[in-house]
TrEMBL record:
One Pfam assignment: Zn_ribbon_NUD
Catalytic activity from the UniProt record: a 5'-end NAD(+)-phospho-ribonucleoside in mRNA + H2O = a 5'-end phospho-adenosine-phospho-ribonucleoside in mRNA + beta-nicotinamide D-ribonucleotide + 2 H(+)
GO cellular component: cytosol
Stated name of the protein: NAD(+) diphosphatase
Sorted UniProt keywords: Hydrolase, Magnesium, Metal-binding, NAD
CDD domains per UniProt: NUDIX_NADH_pyrophosphatase_Nudt13 (cd03429)
Species classification: Bacteria, Bacillati, Bacillota, Negativicutes, Selenomonadales
């Protein structure tokens, strides 16, 4: 999965006074895109030594293999020579890695968007500033403290003997199959969310809900929590056509994976295909 980058290491330790060195990574973001260069499999971000201008302020995000990763704050319209702005989707499907840089891109995007969304205090409307000792934003007017937003969501492998429930979303460009997924609601447990999402999208009841793995997914500020479960009773699918355009039972040997193995969804599909579900019993 995208965050399984061993022997590489991403450290999210908060370092408020860090300044970039020449080999540190600099993230430029504009709209829904980030500045990158390179061919497929060799994508890279600019390093501090490649940036000749002194007009930027650098905001420390985290480190990757001991090198700082910073967000460049300032007015930057044109990309650096040899670089171009690409969306996370373009980076994922066109450039495809290296995996540790893909994970860094998703995590950087999570933080950049959180900072951008919280320039103003949601309680009193005044400007916020950086907290001194932790990754947070503070309002000098009312004292409100804002921490990074992390949205819990579930992805669900519904099993029916040697078949698993696969779906395709309605009104999305994705051509591949995925598992049932959805966001956790207020006052709801993860297990309750599993049962509700499966029922709402496919009309199926489930039982034996078991946690599998989790995954940070910074493009939408998610923490995705994976579960396997079994269909309970009637296996007839009643699809919610406003959410899905396809929902069907697929035999283990007929499962086709996604273009990469970076998502928890694809990881779970492949584990089921391989019959590697010993952890689920």
């Amino acid at each position: 999965m995208i965050h399984e980058i061993t022997p590489h290491r991403l450290s999210n330790e908060f370092l408020p006074d860090a300044e970039p060195w020449k080999d540190d990574i600099i993230i430029f973001a504009k709209g829904d895109a980030m500045m990158v260069a390179g061919e497929p499999g060799e994508m890279r971000f600019p390093k501090r030594q490649e940036i000749r201008s002194n007009k930027y302020i650098y905001q420390y995000l985290f480190s990757l293999d001991g090198h700082g990763v910073y967000h460049a704050l300032g007015s930057h319209v044109e990309p650096l020579e040899g670089f171009a702005y690409k969306t996370l989707r373009e980076i994922r499907y066109q450039l495809q890695g290296p995996q540790e840089l893909m994970y860094a891109a998703y995590t950087a995007w999570h933080l950049i968007k959180w900072y951008e969304d919280n320039h103003f205090c949601g309680r009193c409307g005044h400007l916020t500033g950086y907290a001194a000792k932790e990754r947070a934003l503070e309002c000098d007017n009312c004292g409100h403290v804002i921490y990074p937003r992390i949205i819990p969501a579930v992805v669900v492998g519904v099993m029916n003997g040697d078949s698993i429930l696969l779906t395709k979303y309605a009104n999305r460009k994705m051509s591949f199959y995925a598992l049932v997924a959805g966001f956790v609601e207020i006052g709801e447990t993860l297990e309750e969310c599993v049962a509700r999402e499966v029922m709402e999208e496919t009309g199926l009841k489930v039982k034996n809900i078991r946690y599998y793995k989790s995954q940070p997914w910074g493009s939408v500020q998610d923490l995705i929590v994976g579960f396997f479960c079994e269909v309970d009773g009637d296996t007839t699918i009643h699809m919610d056509k406003s959410e899905l355009k396809e929902a069907l039972w697929v035999k283990r040997e007929d499962i086709q994976g996604q273009a990469d193995d970076w998502s928890l969804t694809n990881h779970m599909m492949m584990k089921f295909k391989e019959g590697d579900i010993s952890l689920l019993r």
